UniProtKB/TrEMBL annotation:
<comment type="similarity">
    <text>Belongs to the ABC transporter superfamily.</text>
</comment>
<dbReference type="InterPro" id="IPR030679">
    <property type="entry name" value="ABC_ATPase_HisP-typ"/>
</dbReference>
<dbReference type="GO" id="GO:0016887">
    <property type="term" value="F:ATP hydrolysis activity"/>
</dbReference>
<dbReference type="GO" id="GO:0005524">
    <property type="term" value="F:ATP binding"/>
</dbReference>
<protein>
    <recommendedName>
        <fullName>ABC-type polar-amino-acid transporter</fullName>
        <ecNumber>7.4.2.1</ecNumber>
    </recommendedName>
</protein>
<dbReference type="Pfam" id="PF00005">
    <property type="entry name" value="ABC_tran"/>
</dbReference>
<feature type="domain" description="ABC transporter">
    <location>
        <begin position="9"/>
        <end position="253"/>
    </location>
</feature>
<dbReference type="InterPro" id="IPR003439">
    <property type="entry name" value="ABC_transporter-like_ATP-bd"/>
</dbReference>
<dbReference type="GO" id="GO:0015426">
    <property type="term" value="F:ATPase-coupled polar amino acid-transporter activity"/>
</dbReference>
<dbReference type="InterPro" id="IPR017871">
    <property type="entry name" value="ABC_transporter-like_CS"/>
</dbReference>
<keyword id="KW-0813">Transport</keyword>
<keyword id="KW-0067">ATP-binding</keyword>
<keyword id="KW-0547">Nucleotide-binding</keyword>
<dbReference type="InterPro" id="IPR027417">
    <property type="entry name" value="P-loop_NTPase"/>
</dbReference>
<dbReference type="InterPro" id="IPR003593">
    <property type="entry name" value="AAA+_ATPase"/>
</dbReference>
<dbReference type="InterPro" id="IPR050086">
    <property type="entry name" value="MetN_ABC_transporter-like"/>
</dbReference>
Amino acid sequence: MNAQDQPMVRIRSVRKRFGSLEVLKGIDLDVPAGEVVCVVGPSGSGKSTLLRCVNRLESIDSGRIWVNGELMGYAERDGRLHTLRPHELSRQRRGIGMVFQRFHLFPHRTAIENVMEGPVTVLRTSTAQARRQAQELLDRVGLADRGHHYPAQLSGGQQQRVAIARSLAMRPSLMLFDEPTSALDPELVQEVLAVMRDLAATGMTMMVVTHEMNFAREVGDQLVFMDDGVIVERGDPREVLAAPRHERLRAFLGQVQ
Ligand code: ADP
Ligand code: MG
């Protein structure tokens, strides 16, 4: 397989348990570079855990996950797998942005300082350069004139857009979104989805856990329906949503749409 055919994310036979509860029961999934995979499913089906396994906020019990051709969390040397050291794992994680339901901005820093933080402290970018890039990113998420506001002075939708800009400042090759609009008032949802739509149009590879079926239909290249730790149905979002094959997916769609 050459580099071009290699998916950005490759998940094989992944299992994960918390104590006696098996949360992921053998997940296989490819996310080709430049594509958007939307993951939907009922609460507790394992969607967040799956995303957290991709960037190794959680370890996995069995299976393999590769991101950008690298096995997450391990290095192969002398034909054996070695657990990565913390600094090596940090380097891997740096290439993966994650946006959560809650925005997790630094409350005592302005919007632009939040966006500059990673490049300055982790990438050792100069302050002047980081500020220029941060301003460009704030422009991109529609917040050019909000750089000097503190999180508490911004709406939830604006804070989430700052959080997206902050992730992008690390120049990730993959973005993970875990219900990025679920904590927002309904009138603020679209402004965040619009930023995500623009990001997808630039060719960013994205895994998006969401209940926004219109977003999945219009932006998603693939729709994955999870239930009880397994992928029950997957395919082109337009086809899957127009004609769901499994009763569990039909029941789920009846609740969210
Ligand atoms: P979803 O995001 O689809 O709602 P999650 O991945 O958050 O589902 O959770 C799947 C299951 O795993 C749930 O039953 C949840 O309670 C459980 N779970 C998630 N994280 C932990 C944890 N750190 N410790 C124990 N159980 C967990
Ligand atoms: Mg979740």
